[in-house]
Design a protein that fits this description.
29% helix, 24 strands, Purple Acid Phosphatase, chain A, domain 2, six-stranded mixed β-sheet, 18% strand
Length: 645
């Protein structure tokens, strides 16, 4: 697949010199955004809800896990987020009223709508969508002004910024890079960013006006001597090889001078990228937790750079961040991502030196903005204060420049030369050629018969749609869909659009497959994924949710050992899964090989269109909720729609 450079992308958008200049020219356009929201004055939120005067002299703004969502969305928080081991009952493993109580928040408020699943549909009708880059830009500018100007702030992004929407897939993340430049992101780390080709990643890093960092991303030793990789680095002005001696692919940290204080920001990409995503996309890079390297690096920074504060910008996941904060001396705060946890208050931990470190995580989909103020005097931190602000879209006017950029970008024409699949011509839809992104994404497919959501440790209703589509495509006994935490929510009675489908499926390896699998191997897959989720050691967890399974019910005991968690697995017809019997299993998003099946979003679209009724309603006859054992007293579960033993 050809790399999209900035010039090509802007030409396709019909822009002239720069995206921002085009945005200014079209800011007064009569064209409505593709998804409109209720006027802000109709939302009952106090006028001072977003007032936050600076307490100190340094303000850090933090976002993470946008997953390509430029416009306001609905996103339901989980009713199941189980904590095991030391994480039992500790944030983020509290849901619903338990979370509100722990954080001293009241029900039926903007905060309860943002942080919990409680009464979600009524709350969504009351408060509307959340997030949106135009609204986030307005909020950031407001908070920067309240801090005395942008020079007193630094804006961090925790990764998973460039992936998760149709437009980010079709532009290879360029749309998100341009938008993040308008937003004013100063520093970022990555995870799904690395699921584009290395050349595309480096092109985007070059386009990004901030610093792309990561102490745990290394150039493989063989690649350091490879002429092809050397040429790739040279073609990108040296990007992709920051330090040949250590092997850093990107700068490991950056020092920002903010209002007279020196703030060091250390980068940590997702450590398990090489296991969780196809290595073919990043053949020259390796990843890892690299805690020992982190300890050594922070000590070196303390001795040589003598910063006033050291913070970690991380895509580890919150439980991993808590453990790392305990074990790495010298960190004052962690700004985390990956696990999509919206936690209003920081988790304060003591490290091995006895000093306190604040661990935060700013949710996903642009729903939240983390704000940490430091009062630094004479090289010492006198105080710290943290607030996480829900981004209620209707309560924030859209920034005109950002909205104009998004509207213009969505008028880009779907072009075969930039969006065809990496494998075969069959993997792009010819009927979309010549249409604009907006025309494709605004297609109405069916009306939802219930709330369609994904987030939670086990099956979501959107996951069931995906699993049903796979089973129908291949006439399979069972279907498997990854327990990823991205994917927006569709309200009951709303039209399911192609944009909704793309938020569930958009990735660079969306091909589907069908295979024959023994019952033994099928159950082992479930066991191994469960261990990734429920191993008591956070360093051995992958940070996702349980694999979604269609056509099959099972019982799981999260507290049991590996290969002892899954029991009583049965097909929908009641057939008990037998170890030596063969079953037809369908899936998508293979990590280790490229399947030959159609792309997932086309499979899902066709399923929805075929199975909607004459009233245009898509009905789901069954949800494969697993039966749960040993979780009744866990504060990380509430209102579970399946059976609890």
């Amino acid at each position: 697949m050809p790399t999209i450079d900035r010039r090509t992308f802007l030409k396709l958008m019909g822009l002239s010199a720069t995206a921002s200049s085009a945005a200014v020219l079209s800011a007064c356009s009569d064209k409505a955004p593709s998804k409109t929201v209720t006027p802000a004055q109709e939302v009952k939120i106090s006028s001072d809800f977003y007032d936050l005067p600076l307490k100190g002299n340094v303000r850090i703004l933090h976002t993470t896990d946008y997953h390509g969502q430029l416009l306001p969305v609905y996103f339901r928080e989980p009713n199941v987020n189980l904590g095991v081991g030391k994480a039992f009952g500790r944030p983020p493993h509290l849901v619903g009223n338990k979370l509100l109580q722990a954080m001293n928040l009241k029900p039926d408020t903007p905060e309860s709508y943002a942080y919990t699943y409680l009464d979600f549909e009524n709350a969504a009708a009351k408060y509307g969508r959340t997030g949106g880059f135009p609204q986030m830009k307005t909020l950031m500018d407001r908070l920067r002004k309240q801090a005395g100007g942008r020079q007193n702030t630094v804006t961090l992004d925790g990764g998973d910024l460039w992936q998760g929407s149709g437009t980010s897939l079709w532009t290879r993340g360029v749309d998100m890079v341009e938008a993040s430049n308008i937003l004013g992101i100063d520093v970022m780390v990555g995870h799904w960013e690395f699921t584009y080709k290395e050349s595309e990643v480096l092109n985007n890093v070059a386009l990004f006006k901030g610093d792309f960092i990561g102490q745990n991303v290394r150039v493989k030793e063989d690649s350091l001597m490879d002429d092809k990789y050397t040429a790739l680095v040279d073609a990108n002005n040296g990007r992709g090889l920051y330090d040949e001696d250590v092997g850093y692919a990107f700068q490991p940290y950056v020092i920002k001078e903010i209002n007279g204080a020196r703030i060091c920001i250390v980068g940590q990409a997702f450590p398990r990228t090489g296991n969780a995503n196809p290595p073919e996309f990043f053949p020259d890079w390796s990843f890892g937790l690299r805690e020992d390297d982190m300890i050594e690096l922070v000590e070196q920074i303390r001795e040589e750079e003598k910063p006033d504060a050291i913070v970690l910008l991380s895509h580890n996941g919150m439980d991993v961040d808590i453990k790392m904060a305990e074990r790495v001396p010298g960190l004052n705060a962690v700004f985390g991502g990956h696990t999509h946890d919206g936690v209003p208050e920081p988790i304060k931990v003591k490290n091995v030196e006895g000093h306190e470190c604040w661990v935060t995580n700013a949710g996903s989909n642009g729903k939240f903005l983390g704000v940490m103020d430091f009062d630094i005097q004479d090289g010492k931190i006198k105080s710290m204060e943290y607030n996480m602000m829900p981004v209620i879209a209707d309560a924030l006017p859209a920034d005109k420049e950002m909205q104009a950029y998004i509207d213009q970008m969505r008028q880009t024409v779907y072009d075969k030369n930039i969006v065809e699949s990496r494998v075969k011509e069959m993997f792009y839809s010819k009927d979309r050629l010549g249409k604009t992104f907006a025309e494709i994404l605004d297609e109405k497919l069916a009306i939802a018969d219930r709330l369609l959501y994904r987030r939670g440790n086990f099956m979501g209703t959107w996951d069931q749609v995906l699993c049903n589509a796979l089973r129908e495509e291949y006439n399979a006994d069972v279907s498997l869909s990854a327990g990823v935490r991205w994917g927006t929510t569709t309200l009951k009675g709303d039209w399911i659009t192609m944009e909704d489908v793309m938020t569930q499926c958009s990735m660079t390896y969306g091909e589907t497959y069908v295979t024959e699998m023994t019952g033994h191997d099928l159950l082992n897959i479930l066991e191994q994924v469960a261990d990734n989720l429920f191993d008591p050691d956070p360093y051995l967890q992958s940070g996702g949710d349980m694999v979604r399974v269609g056509g099959l019910d099972y019982t799981i005991d999260p507290s049991a050992k590996l290969y002892e968690r899954i029991t009583d697995a049965r097909l929908d017809n009641g057939h008990l899964i037998e170890a030596d019997q063969t079953y037809k299993v369908a899936g998508w998003a293979q990590v280790n090989r490229t399947p030959d099946g159609r792309l997932m979003w086309d499979v899902v679209r066709d399923y929805i269109l075929k199975n909607k009724g004459k009233d245009n309603v898509l009905k789901l006859p069954k949800i494969n909720h697993p039966k749960l054992v040993g979780v009744a007293n866990n504060p990380g579960i509430a209102d579970y729609p399946g059976e609890i033993a």
